[in-house]
Amino acid sequence: MKYLVTGATGKLGSKIVDVLLKSVPASELAVSVRNPEKAEALKAKGVDVRHGDFDKPETLDEAFKGVERLLIISADGDNDTRIRQHANAVEAAERAGVSFIAYTSLADATESQNLMAPPHVETEGAIERTGIPHAFLRNNWYLENELGSIQGVLAGAPWVTAARDGKVGWALQDDYAEAAANVLLADDFEQNIFELSGPLHTQAELVEALSEVLGREVTLQEVSTDAYAGVMRGAGVPEGAIPIVVGIQDSIRNGSLEVESNDFELVLGRPVTPLKEALQKLVSTL
Q1: E strands, the chain, in order
Q2: Handedness of CA 103, 285, 279, 277 (dihedral sign)
Q3: CA angle 244–197–106, rounded 5-degree value
Q4: Sign of CA dihedral 220, 176, 192, 263
Q5: Which site from 7, 31, 142, 281 is most exposed, i.e. has the minimal number of CB atoms within 10 Å?
Q6: pLDDT exceeding 90 applies to what percent of the chain?
Q7: Of the candidates 114, 119, 116, the residue with the CA atom closest to the CA atom of residue 163
């Protein structure tokens, strides 16, 4: 069996590879990366490091050669860029004759009003049209996405949000990585869509948990969307990124990440890391 993970030098991809190496020999694992020199440590472990650039389909033909089970990790970038790059990866997978594709998607992708949903909807559709057996890993929200706010709190700032009572299924990337590896390795799940959502919490509940972890009260500052944009500008967020960070708050407020599911525990074979324990882990790294 030959497994391949794209984007394997990224934050999530590197964690997935680490999990896979606990279950399969390095000789059975390949990675497709834009910059192979960044994967020298994996090569030293015996992993088959291949050059694969989502903007250069010819590199993907070579990267995916001989692969049976493929994990496509969604790329970074604006929606149009991601749609184009993902389409290139899916088409290359079909040409290579892979027998299974797993893809890291977004919570409730096909019904979501989240500003980041369109690339995932397009990619899920492209994979379905190939007819290749597949699994969509609909990741809710990485707790690591809140590291900037946590660092601000540690520096004495309040927790600022415009998300109101919107709920999020936060979980650690470690949990998402283990889930992705388990799905890539297994062929006995009776479903092909996995809503990977942790227990749902509001911003206020997240701040309460963070207060307990830090042993002091963290101030929650709820503001309007316009005020939130102003706070982000003041914090140094580039102007081009303001619509994105504001849009994420809008998406949370509107319930796009409020997805209840037990798929995460099903795939992990254990409960998701509890919120306070997860926060403690992140705080200890700062």
Answers
A1: 3-6, 29-33, 48-51, 69-72, 100-106, 134-139, 141-142, 159-161, 170-171, 193-196, 220-222
A2: positive
A3: 40
A4: negative
A5: 281
A6: 94
A7: 114
- At residue 221, what are phi and psi to the nearest 5 degrees? -115, 105
**CA gap 81, 261 in Å, rounded:** 30
Helix (H, G, I), strand (E, B) or coil at 179: helix
**What is the rounded distance in angstroms from the CA atom of residue 272 to the CA atom of residue 65?**
35
pLDDT digits (tens, 9 = 90+) for 188-236: 898 999 999 999 999 999 999 999 999 999 999 999 999 999 999 988 8
CA angle 208, 211, 216 (to 5 degrees): 140
Question: Which residues are within 8 A (CB) of 28 and not within 5 positions of it... i.e. 6 or more apart?
Answer: 1, 2, 3
Question: Which tokens hold the place of 160?
Answer: 């600022």
In Å, how far from its chain's centre is CA 244?
Answer: 16
Question: Which strands make up the sheet holding 134-139, listed edge to edge?
Answer: 48-51, 29-33, 3-6, 69-72, 100-106, 134-139, 193-196
The structure's pTM equals 0.95
Instruction: Using DSSP bridges, classify how beta strands 100-106 and 220-222 pair: parallel, antiparallel or unpaired.
Output: unpaired
3-state secondary structure of 160: strand
Whether 30 and 24 have beta carbons less than 8 Å apart is answered as no
Distance CA 18, CA 45 (A): 11
- What tokens does 57 get? 């389909």
> Per DSSP, what are the bridge partners of residue 221?
160
